[in-house]
Amino acid sequence: MGYTKVWADNEKLSKEEKLKLEKDGLDILNDIPQYAEEGFASIPKEDWPLFKWAGLYLQKPKEDGYFMMRVNVPSGILSHSQALILAGIAKDYGRDVIDITTRQAIQFHWLQIEDIPDIFRRLEEGGLSSVGACGDIMRTIVGNPLAGIDPNELINTQEIVQDVYDYFQHNRDFSNLPRKFKVSISSNLNNAQNAEINCLSFTPATKEIDGKAVHGFHVYVGGGLSAKPYLAQELDVFVRPDQVNEVTKVVTTIFRDHGYREKRHRARLKFLLADWGPEAFKEKMEEFISLPSKGTNRFETWNAGYFYGVHPQKQAGFNYIGLNIPVGRLYSDELIELARISKEYGNGEIRTCNSQNVVIPNIADDDVDRFLNEDILDRMNIAPKPFIGSSVSCTGIEYCNLALVETKERMRDIANYLDDHLTVDVPVRIHMVGCPNACGQRQIADIGLQGIKMKNKDKKLVEAFEIYVGGTLTQGAQFNEKLKGKIEAHELDGVLLKFIQYFTDEKQQGEDFHAF
Ligand code: SF4
Fold first, then answer.
1. For the CA atoms of 51, 392, 354, 503, what is the dihedral angle to 10 degrees?
2. Structure ipTM over 0.95, yes or no
3. Is 179 a catalytic residue?
């Protein structure tokens, strides 16, 4: 152990903290081979929460012994062979289902403990891993899905993200954080990383140093969603690209040693930052590292991670093409087909986006028309209808133990219904979540739909939704606000139709939902 657990003597630690002191989350990796041999019944219940460190959650209902697995995809960049490995795992063990998450990761469902060693072996062969994708540890790092090909980036951040990921992933100095720790590192000028909702974000910046303009990063700390959302606050520092890993270490160390561990719901970095303020946080950082003050923030706008259509790359003569994956769900054969076209027309890469969509890069000008004639693009459209193209959904009750309502299929059905009945000249981003945890990031949506249970007029407990409006990360970022009332799930499509119809009738040409 390379450090002292400064909080270990605190008698008021939450029960989760006490468990982590007895057994480090990463220790579960040593136990999994034996559990796989002896079967699900051999796993003691107190070990169930530790599976998160291996990227595994028990899906609903827990007693049935099926796992959800989340696989890290740093910057969302998958090679051809990695995509085929993922498709093979879903086909052989996961009933074909593959979800793209709002952190560019990949999720499987229906896995059984007996299958996990072979799944780990396949992932490792492909240079992939699920370790740290869940649990009180650094989660999959969000990056620029266009890293290296992006005409709108200052720096190619692919290697920087990979270095930070490699440093932290199995690092036992940082495997017991107070809670999950979400990092984004991107140099995309359109804030594709959703910087303000991460615990720690490195964002594009330029600073004059010794008479030369140096491209690097600004640092935002303390963002996060869930029941009490906070926007990250900017620190007055400038970070060179070669300092990103060190600064990440410093911020993670402060979180590890000073983050709150008494009450689980107060354990995210956002609460520490809210109490300390950015100035005090920066002073604490200065005990570890000296950084110059801010330069110029280079964000130009916010694209929410959407890249639909054909776009020229940094490399002359090549294009990246953004495809819609409705609500982020695809099936093994579809991923195999995406891998085939990515190889036939590009360099085999598929890049996942935090909007739950994909980009296929490196397609030569001469190949674009043939690419656009591929049958798979009928389902994974490059110019999707506005509602299905701007819909995001969390996992929901189908697999998630915390969910109060069904989300994925419902969001897809509602989006298709709205596309059939409404015409809009601007996207209306609708995000659906099954509980206040907000994995579907409902707080930053134009329209956020949060599932609840309520009693209907017949006193029956039914699925329902709260509606929130006006979220954005454009300049003057703000979370959406709750409208009065609750809507029973079966009435949601009709209510949204009327509500958005009012918006389209009243708004001016080109005016978007937030400005309205
Ligand atoms: Fe589950 Fe809630 Fe996250 Fe949806 S938002 S996946 S229901 S925890």
1. -150
2. yes
3. yes
